[in-house]
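Obj.: predict assembly geometry.
Materials: sequence records (below).
Method: joint structure prediction, all chains together.
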Amino acid sequence: MFSRILTLIIKELEMLLQDRQSRMVLIVPVILQLALFPFAATLEVKNNTLAIYNEDSGRESVELMQRFSQAQAFSQLLALYSEAEVRYAIDNQEALIVIRFPADFSRDIAAGLPSKIQAILDGRRSNSGQIALGYVQQIVNDYSNERFRLQQKNVPSSLVVRHWFNPNLNYVWHILPSLIAIITSINALIVTALSVAREREQGTLDQLLISPLTPGMIMIGKIIPAILVAVVQGTIILLGAIFIYRVPFAGSLLLLYSSMMFYCLALAGFGLLISSVCATQQQAFLGVFCFVMPTIMLSGYASPVDNMPVWLQYLDWINPLRHFIVIVKGLFLKDIDPIALLPNVYPLIIIAIVTLSSANWLFRHRLA
Amino acid sequence: MSDSLVILDSVRKTFSHSVKPALEGVSAVLKPGQITGLVGPDGAGKTTLIRLMAGLLAPTSGSISVDHCDPIRDADQLRAFIGYMPQKFGLYEDLSVIENLELHADLRALMGEERVTTFNRLLAFTDLTRFTSRLAGKLSGGMKQKLGLACALLGRPRLLLLDEPSVGVDPISRRELWKMVHELIAKGMTVVWSTAYLDEAELCAEVILMNDGQLIFSGKPADLTQRIHDRSLQIRQITGNRRQLLARALRRPEVSDGVIQGHAVRLVLREGVDRPNLNELDAGDEAELVPVAPRFEDAFIEALGGGPGGDSVLAQSLSPVLGDEDIVVEAVALTKRFGDFTATDQVNFEVKRGEIFGLLGPNGAGKSTTFRMMCGLLTPTSGTARVMGIDLKTSGSEARQRLGYMAQKFSLYSNLTIEQNLKFFSGVYGLRGAWQKTVMAEMIEVFRLQPYLGTTPDTLPLGFKQRLALACAVMHQPAILFLDEPTSGVDPVTRREFWTHINGIVEKGVTVMVTTHFMDEAEYCDRIALVFRGKIIAAGSPDQLKEQIASPQNPDPSMEDAFISLVQQHASDVSI
Amino acid sequence: MKSISFRRLSALCRKETWQILRDPSSNLIAFVLPVVMMFIFGYGINLDSTAVHIGLVLEDTSPEARHFADNLYGSPYFIVHAAETQAEVGRALTEGRVRGFVVVPVDFAEKLKQPTGTAPLLVVTDGSEPNTANFVQNYVIAAWTGWMQQRASERGELPPPGISIEPRFWFNPSAESRNFLIPGSITIIMTVIGALLTSLVVAREWERGTMEALLSSPVTRTELLLSKLLPYYVLGIVSLFLCVGVAALMMHVPFRGSLLILWGIGSLFLASSLGLGLLLSTVLRNQFVAAQAALNAAFLPAMMLSGFLFEIRSMPAVIQGATYLIPARYFVTALQTLFQAGNVAPILLHSGMFLVFAGSFFIGLTALKTRRRLE
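Observations (raw structure tokens):
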């Protein structure tokens, strides 16, 4: 029995790795994505343009402008001289944010009065705007605290901010662990869903069913190669993250790989489920596409799961990627312990059991 | 109108993806107002030639003239007077019959009054009037073919190009199509009909016979068969085993080719030799050697230098199948319903050890459903299908270990190499280690696969693909072999080789169950069950079936005659 | 060039329409997927954290400390969970149950009383979610500033003369991310309909052998091309207006531009994405390969590099350069502008010009690759 399953696995791997083209399909996108995503797929704000409409002529506004220009978020400063120019700059997206110093700005500060700056933001990019606004706020706060300290005796209280797990809030640290989860899932799904559809299309599935192999063995023969592919791809990204992007890996590799196993089983379950309702590779491909899109979007990668409506958060429970991203990030950055891992591992196990057994049922059912 | 409608002058065509030219210097003339058969095995270059005539491909060198038009330069003129039906009929499966017709009518500017009358005429002609609103994808093979023809006929073409119109179509539909085409010829149309079925060639006024990109013969089919006049013989009244007799006969130097026809054996002799001695062949005391009319297929094999030998090296390498059951395959009141459609209705039969049993029937008759239930791919709605006394659906692997299966499309893994395919299929059946190596080495030697081990099945010539598929099906020494239309679309030489192996295997005690709508294959069977509308309407040996319909007008009917009249008899009985 | 026969063209278009309507996978992509995507982008992706769970450890239970805590509890941006020890809340942070915590140290009130001392508060965020971490930091600062000012005024002291920033989000005053995500996501839907769906259609004709039947009829190249473009164009435009309708009427995203301009720019974008899909289909002649190519050449760039979700300006220069070649980038800008800013001529003209160029490039290339023969 084991030798027969082994035969199936070897065949599947041979088919995946036979020619150059199919080997490339498995490896090249992974490397490209590894090179591109950490830079492209980020909600970080940097190198943006900050425009300044300064109606003030005092020293304070100039000092603040200098501080703005040193921020990483803003590589360009654009000077504006009229309301019309402000309107044009925002309308045409020449600047993400316009800072307007009122005419009495320096005077108010000098007089020890509270002063106001206006920040005009492009609502079409309100998220980047908010982040940029955060940077501006921080610069302004630092400046006013410094002034206060210089002039006065004492600030009664201070805030000490620490970012755990990622002290400098480096976005790449956030992206790469998620990427391990995302990229492995696409291929694991394609390998399972499409290979069954292909066997059905080419008639070899009948050949297998007539042989002494049981449907269970055939499914195992599809699942294990998918897991192998996912593990290899995951390892490539893991190595890239650690050695190229220098993201420190804090947790346990053993835990990472064993939970990856459960994740792949859950995915393979979905892949087999898709393939058992699809007659052709074409349909299987579209099916995988329609499944993967929402899975990734709702995984918590693009925006936190906490921000979704509550009912959608419950619905999203069946999304294996959502749980696995938490696991990978937890292990990668937080060195999370096995017990803390459990709340995210057991959903994977349940999803795997449900999808695999229904795929198995459908698989047998469709034959009859 | 002149005497030649199409002139091919040393036409050569190469494709960038293959070294070997698809056509090599083909010259021929097609006369107007008749059917010209474009005949040859798979891969002979028939489709390429038709596409060249339709202006869909440009020749690499040489010239083509279709009614004084160059198909490429004068494409617009050409398209106004040709009708073309591509392989698979070129229909939009998600459009209905009438929508397909309307599309082609619009494309060919068939409007107004004329359009209505043409539609009515063609629908009546093709007998599709009842099905106008049905989607083309839901039509049977025969109906699709008629619709394809109707679409090609819409522009009132003078030249009709039909590319393998009879593939996957049962004999009844084929006959109807021929009748329709003959009516068109009578109205002055010129038809080019490409086919791999050599019996169709005999119905053509002239044939262009091709093999491997080269022209082998061009002229009247009778001229070719004339060459082997007096050399076609049948050994009748055989006592003893006719398969062994065929093998012995093919070993004789004077015999060029031979096949089994029911209880008889048909032989073609080499030129200028004496008839073989029946005693030496051990054909039995009653046996007689009767000259028969030569068939086009006999002449074709002869033109290619004779058939393959009669000994199966494969069978020699197999050990005899042992076992005590006498009835190996058994169907009892087998029924399968899909919704309210009954695909198989109360079917009963038994297959004995060492028998070749055939399920024969037109498209959609239910033979495939029955077959799939027998090998455990479908669950019967009621009744039982037993193989070696075991219900395959409930019992597991051990019973299936003793089955061999070969599907119509030679279901091999197209992106694995030959060696990997062999290794996989032997591994699946539990062959391991030294044993696996020995068996694989044997198969490679028997089927002469050595030079191809590292290539994929896609690149193999059809004959080798067939060999590989057979090797994969018998490596584990099955006791029963299931064959699903094993030689459809396969050329006669390869088909003979295949049946030589099957005959040899059967002699070792293997039981063979085969579905087919191919009359030649039916002749090889010991017994046939004729399936129609889900029921077995006749059963018996091929000769018994033929005798059932023998009449004074047709004392010696062919298998196809038997098939058609039995089905029609049954159809009319039911409708009355 | 021969003249186009309206009869043949309309027959072909009719055929194509039937096929779209009857093919389950086309229906899935054309009608189901847009709805699912609008839904996901409308509800699933929300960049605005409304209320983040944070922990609070009050090691000091003095009235001062409680006063500060009240400010946190009062913030609409936080759901505060009280904890006994730092270890406890630290574990909650590790497990992702809270996204940050604040610690008020034992000696907080004491230090606050000392005239020269500074009483520190510790804020810890979950750095593995940088955006949320920033959010937590900013709003804890806001709560803290509020507390400082209240405290000062209660004590009759002059508050530290802070510089306050008054943010104004033009077009989108409440800075809701769905207001820009939904218009942007229409680009993704148009890309999928335009490129992914059409990448299948010509290849399908080749695979099923119907192309041969067409080519042997008097159809011209232009008719063939137009018959593939027009039905899918109509499908795309219907889908565009459907999406815009759903966005504006059901999801209440304001639409301030002109529908006519939307139609114009939408048509231009569709032209380029249909062109790309047809080009792949025509050249590759295999549905499976073409669909995969379309996914990589159209969908992924539209997703990653169009700026609809990820800020282009934050990408490295090389990648920024690449985004200029992606039609989706221009359509995203145009859509977000039309929805929120209205008819801003320079942006729309600029986008339109590029789309004209991209559309004619892809359609021209497809025309060039469309053959009247099989080779």
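Conclusions so far: The mean pLDDT of chain B is 86.
To do: check interface contacts against the pulldown list.
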